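Field: COMPLEX_INPUT
Field: COMPONENT_COUNT = two
Field: RESIDUE_TOTAL = 875
Field: MODE = joint
Values follow.
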Amino acid sequence: MYTENDYLMWLSCIINIGTDKKNCLLDYFGEAKEIWNADRDEILNVLKNIKEECLHTMFKTKDEKLMEKRIYELERAGIKFIGVSEDNYPEKLKEIYQPPIGLYVLGEFPDFSVPSVNIVGMRKRSIYGADVTYKLAKELAENGFIIISGMAEGVDSDAHRGALDGNGITAAVLGNGVDICYPEFNGKLRERIIENGCLISEYPPGTKPKPYLFPIRNRIMSGLSDVVVVTEAKERSGSLITVSHALEQGKDVFAVPGNITSDRSEGTNELLKQGAYVLTKTEDILEVFGIEQGEDNKINNKKITQTLETDEKLVYDCICSDPISVDELFIKTGKNLSNLQYILTMLEIKGVIRKISGQKYIRSY
Amino acid sequence: MLSKIISGALTGIDGYIVETEVDISSGLPCFEIVGLPDSAVKESKERVRTAIKNSGFVFPVKRITVNLAPANTRKEGPSFDLPIAIGILTCIDVINNNKTKNIFFAGEVSLDGLVKPISGILPLIYGAFENGVKKCIVPLANAEEAALVKGMEVIGVKTLNETVDYFNGKKDIPPTVINFDKLFSDDGDFYEFDFADVKGQDNVKRALEIAAAGLHNILIIGPPGAGKTMMTKRLPSILPNLTFKESMEITKIYSVSGLLGDKNSLVKTRPFRAPHHTISNSAMVGGGRVPKPGEVSLSHNGVLFLDELPEFNRNVLEELRQPLEDRKVTISRVNGTMTFPSNLMVAASMNPCPCGYYGYSEKCDCSRGAVQKYLGKISGPLLDRLDIQVEASAVNYEDLSVNIKSESSADIKKRVIAAHDIQKERYKNENIYFNSALSAAQIERYCELGKTEREIIKNAFERLNLSARAYHKILKISRTIADLAGSEKIDVSHIAEAIQLRNLDRKFIR
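Field: COMPLEX_OUTPUT
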């Protein structure tokens, strides 16, 4: 009547029983269907210290009407449930500690056997962090990598955006139901991810974002990927949880070095000290997978710089990767203000510099 | 015995003639005022009776009827005290009836017979003058203001007795005259603030210059302490001097609102109004039982400064849209519908986020959602009316300590005036005066672009993530920048500079 996948879905919906207990049951019974059919004593036999209320929920939800309703609702919302028994359940994920018994997926579930990179970092990243993340994600996506991240504010969003702009596939692993948009302002990004990748969650639709759910989902992010990259993180950052999962799972961890004076790079610099791989360019990761990238990109940027006119070159040389305001440029270059504004616009159009908030400019690379 | 005295009342900021008819007949002693008086007018009975008695005249113990014609409009304020008193005095032959013919009276009297100043004298006299009245008797404190009406003989009086003596030939009061040439001679050095005091921030200064040149509304975004308020306060000092016509318009509004001080009979500086962000709707656009001008009208021909724009009540900001568009505001209340002029320039300032330091300092701890919510408090349609959006950078110590003399307001003003002259000449056959008022069709006509310019603007849109609504704004600002440069044609550099002045169109990585 119901498939094994449906029974797994039922099991995943029992939210007050942890993944460890569910895996325990699966190990004992072999199939989710058997758990459905088991009576109280059998389950108590396996899980000796299970709480009464958990058992109560388990038996209360063993209702065919409810099951029908859930299947119908998933279908209507376009959400797929991929249980551990399914063929397309990623092999990589089965190898981790406490694998999720199933994943809710909105969008097209990619084949995770291709190289995938998990990019993580802090929410309040600097412009440096944003730039590095975006560029890395974009270039990796252009080389066919799947970019995995958590759709949070900051680095996560930058990573997804970079991957999408690089016409690649990206997957967001959420700490809430896939039908809920969190953070709220990421609505547009969410739509784009669904179109060119997918949202993944081990929690059933309707699960509200709760602080304790997010660290747990980090194991899925690192589990789905081959390599974990931390672009910017403070000393005590949530992304370091992902790193510890990755190390447990035996994945390579890369960290992007930052200024030693910036507290937003304390975490990454510390990782490097402990022996993480140093990431200074995209090729560092490509090498791990034995992919060679053409030199086109770099030469391109240099070429543009060479075509700049004298005036433009003068202004360009005053702008570095530290943001500089137009007033400072005005004093430094000694140029007429309207002429300076003109040059800045031209440089922006040529794509060699970028305006950021606060009427400041930085080099884009 | 009947006497008729000419007086006046206001609708909005326009005065009209009110005939004060006084009749004394025999009968039971009483004192009635008819013709829709409000309580201040009704109370004038007591003031007039006592003032006449205390001035040494005998108040008639008869039936006194006062009619304020036209009888269908509501009269308010104490300005009818003097005409009523004079009317009674003419009836009892203290003053010869013929002598008060065709003379306008207005003023409040106190119990001891002093004649006190009233508000709104300028529009009252102006209204009377337009109706053919050539002479007026006003409180001495109001005389200078009244004398602004050219061709009107203004007699300022201090007491009721003095007025009677004047008419009976016992005392000669010379008419008040003011020297118009002198009023406007000292070349507009009326402003206490000057751009020379502002160090650094050349970017914002330039933006303000462009805003002043094309009368564009401007929004300055910056962290606390960047000098947003300081610079905006200096905006009136780079706008052209007021013409006499503009000056009169402003003085009328201020006169009605009772905001004219004792010293300045004529408003000579461009208004700079900076209402607090807790301001109510009616205080902003005007209102009240009998509608009075609001801040938008008080800043007519001047600058309305909205500090901390997102903190304003949303309704208040939305109400600004119509006055900004129509250049006038119409207010309807039970007691009438009034139209006040509101030809103003809006300068607004805001922080980039709730804490104020987003993008400027590591101090900022606002989440992206909080920043977006903060920026979202300003609606799109209002933002659409703020042509220039410029960001002020934080001031560093070196800027303040360096001893470079900044350009003074007078120098900037010269360029602004030149740009205004170009615009006036160009738009002489249109119903607009400034680039900011260009409609879409007019932009097509007056902001023609060459091939390279079109190419640049196309590239800019593709590369810089500009939103579509920016297109016309950029053209308008480019037009103003070209005018400032004295160039007939808009070229690439003008467009490029204009693009830098549209910050909120850009979708920066936030």
